[in-house]
Amino acid sequence: MTVIAAERAETRSPKQATPRHFLMCPPEHFAVEYSINPWMDPSAPVDSRLALAQWTELKSTYERLGHTVEVVEPQPGLPDMVFAANSATVIGGRVLGAKFRAPERAAEAEHFRRWLTGRGYRDLVMPERINEAEGDFAWTGEFLLAGHGFRTDPAAHSEAQEVLGVPVISLSLVDPRYYHLDTALFVLEKGANAQVAYYPEAFSAGSRRVLERMFPDAVVADAEDAACLGLNGVSDGRNVVLPPEAAGLTRALAERGYEVHHVDIAELRKSGGGPKCCTLEIHS
Predict the structure, then answer these.
(1) What range does the domain containing 253 cover?
(2) Catalytic annotation on 180?
(3) One pLDDT digit (tens) per residue for the chain, 284 residues
(4) Residue of 67, 148, 157, 180 marked active site
(5) Structural domains of the chain, count
(6) pTM for the whole thing?
(7) Choice among 157, 277, 278, 283 that is catalytic
(8) What SS3 class is residue 280?
(9) Which residue, among 62, 84, 38, has the nearest Cα to 202 in the 3D structure?
(10) CATH code of residue 135
């Protein structure tokens, strides 16, 4: 892991880290056995031991930064269960479960539902509409940014609003390489003055205008940042975890006073996943 920091510009406020609560699933059964996104090639070799080592470094990084990490037991026959972000959306004790578009992943939802109910989450609804949870839902602390176009149904956005009781902003994804919202956008700071980083070309023209209006000071990533899943990052408001290949994004964040922590999980990228894909945040 590498850490990159820059002195803050005098005009910018100091960044404040907030402890987070994460749920992860070790990639003990990780493999690329099918193809449900452009990143997946079942004919390419996968090093399962390396994938586990990289995932372990990601988990350790969160813990070193002071975050709470809980772990759900991986299940054989579910190689993508490592991508815990797709399993549920949890905000203020309310939970909207997941419903996967691909039948290969459908069984994952029930395992995460059982984990959450076993930890006392009783206000939990399993969805009627297809939604792939934090893959397509990003909580800003005030409203839910919600993607559609490849996985999550547009109708799932209104279902999320009803179940979670938070306002939802719909965004249309247009590039199949960025099939989930969390491959093209992540929240840097939550709250009334929420901040995001995103890759504009992943969104429709109308959605780009929405993002420009809502986040005029956003960190805008380029094609190289997006191509290494650099937008699949995780931030606590100060510390940002990114893949090391996201060089331009790293510089832009450091210039704004964020501290960037590089964690290599390139083996998991063979299935189209980055740091955020592996990380479900349980929002208080």
Answers:
(1) 2-283
(2) yes
(3) 667 665 444 346 789 999 999 999 999 999 999 999 999 999 999 999 999 999 999 999 999 999 999 999 999 999 999 999 999 999 999 999 999 999 999 999 999 999 999 999 999 999 999 999 999 999 999 999 999 999 999 999 999 999 999 999 999 999 999 999 999 999 999 999 999 999 999 999 999 999 999 999 999 999 999 999 999 999 999 999 999 999 999 999 999 999 999 999 999 999 999 999 999 999 98
(4) 180
(5) 1
(6) 0.95
(7) 277
(8) strand
(9) 38
(10) 3.75.10.10
